[in-house]
């Protein structure tokens, strides 16, 4: 057998795959979803993986949001290295230096290369399929190969996506952006790609629409994992090494009696404490969960960052917030960036993390909660940090009880199975 080609990305070594390797990021996959579906008998392949595969618990990146974690997984590095610490941030350089709140989904904000791009440069055949298009450009940045989203599967071109006629390949219509089918399309496309061409390395990333609505073991959740089960089994039959993880967990964030979300509106509080709003030079609360698709969570998560006026004592404000019920931890910029490995220039003066059952808002008037048709489930905090890492092969050189990071998954799948 030939010696595997080695690549080095962000200070880590990876062997290029000698058999098709599929990394799956199941958005919002709290461990309990897998266990509940396996126990209910609806996901026999996942049950087999949990019993016979290599199974680890790991920690995702905090803020436990989708983009920071997807980018960590594909770069093998924390946000301090790749720069993506949310969907949304306050860019001091925007608007001619006056600063503005902007989306962080443009590849211009990415500060590190991906393992996917490096593998493709080294000659591997690489494919990426995401549910939402917002992630596609970040994940496929400078990558030669196939890269498309289910959301815009009808708009692919050879020049932009490395593939044509995805709808013909998959045999499914373009799903609604708020649907379980958006994720099913990702799996179906992954299977069809493996069936129709040579793929060395594939990255599949779903959406957490189902997990925001359905708790582990409920009908909607089990139906999703039963769907996923069939496609994973098929990929296994096609000879793929499979590594499955999540970008973050998911928890109920509402009052069980009333079904109303448990929200602390930080901007309203700070406007009151400082006697002025952000437009008058007051504090600015940023919720990095904010993105164009807020219907299922109302832009409410368990992580916020706050920019304070220069003359305000950040420690005193931090202590006042930390003393409130429902707050897990308040950290200064330096403390948060050290603990969570974040880029200091994209984080405010304070970082606020709320408890497992509580979310953080800006002003009550700025959150449209009419789209919350079921009681709120969300993420973002330390309480959603535990994620599964599952492999359909035995691993070598990793202690069975090792606590991994979700962004170790490429290392494990390429170097240790
Ligand atoms: Zn997510």
UniProtKB/TrEMBL annotation:
Q: Would you tell me the protein name for this molecule?
A: Phosphonoacetate hydrolase
Sorted UniProt keywords = Hydrolase
Which GO-annotated molecular functions does the record name?
Answer: phosphonoacetate hydrolase activity
Signal peptide range: none
Gene3D superfamilies from the UniProt entry: Alkaline Phosphatase, subunit A (3.40.720.10), Domain 2, Phosphonoacetate Hydrolase (3.30.1360.110)
Species of provenance: Pandoraea nosoerga
State one Pfam family annotation: Phosphodiest
Judging by the UniProt lineage, the source's domain of life is Bacteria
């Amino acid at each position: 057998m030939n010696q595997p080609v080695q690549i080095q990305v962000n200070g880590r070594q990876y062997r290029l795959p000698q058999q098709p390797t599929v990394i799956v990021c199941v958005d919002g996959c709290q461990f309990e979803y897998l266990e509940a579906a396996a126990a209910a008998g609806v996901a026999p392949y996942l049950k087999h993986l949990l019993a016979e595969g290599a199974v680890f618990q790991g920690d995702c990146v905090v803020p436990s949001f989708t983009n920071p974690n997807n980018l960590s997984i594909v770069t093998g590095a924390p946000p301090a290295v790749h720069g993506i610490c949310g969907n949304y941030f306050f860019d001091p350089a925007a608007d001619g230096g006056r600063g503005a709140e902007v989306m962080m989904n443009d590849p211009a904000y990415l500060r590190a290369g991906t393992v996917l791009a490096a593998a493709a440069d080294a000659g591997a055949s690489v494919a990426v399929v995401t549910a939402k298009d917002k992630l596609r450009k970040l994940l496929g940045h400078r990558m030669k190969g196939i890269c498309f989203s289910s959301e815009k599967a009808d708009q692919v071109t050879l020049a932009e996506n490395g593939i044509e006629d995805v709808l013909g390949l998959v045999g499914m219509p373009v799903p609604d952006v708020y649907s379980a089918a958006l994720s099913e399309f990702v799996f179906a496309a992954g299977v069809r790609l493996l069936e129709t061409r040579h793929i060395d390395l594939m990255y599949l990333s779903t959406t957490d629409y189902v997990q925001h609505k359905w708790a582990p073991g409920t009908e909607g959740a089990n139906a999703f994992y039963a769907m996923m089960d069939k496609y994973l089994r098929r990929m296994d039959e096609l000879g793929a090494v499979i590594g499955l993880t999540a970008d973050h967990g998911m928890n109920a964030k509402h009052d069980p009696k009333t079904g109303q979300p448990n929200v602390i509106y930080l901007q309203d509080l700070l406007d009151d404490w400082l006697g002025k709003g952000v437009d008058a030079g007051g504090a600015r609360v940023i919720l990095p969960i904010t993105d164009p698709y807020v219907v299922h969570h109302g832009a409410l998560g368990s992580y916020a960052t706050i920019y304070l006026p220069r003359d305000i004592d950040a420690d005193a404000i931090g202590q006042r917030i930390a003393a409130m019920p429902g707050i897990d931890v308040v950290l200064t910029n330096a403390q948060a960036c050290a603990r969570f490995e974040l880029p200091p220039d994209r984080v405010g003066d304070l970082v606020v993390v709320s408890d497992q059952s509580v979310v953080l808002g800006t002003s009550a008037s700025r959150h449209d909660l009419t789209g919350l048709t079921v009681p709120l489930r969300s993420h973002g905090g330390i309480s959603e940090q535990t994620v599964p890492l599952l492999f359909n092969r035995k691993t070598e050189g990793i202690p069975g009880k090792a606590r991994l990071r979700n962004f170790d998954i490429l290392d494990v799948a390429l170097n240790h199975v």
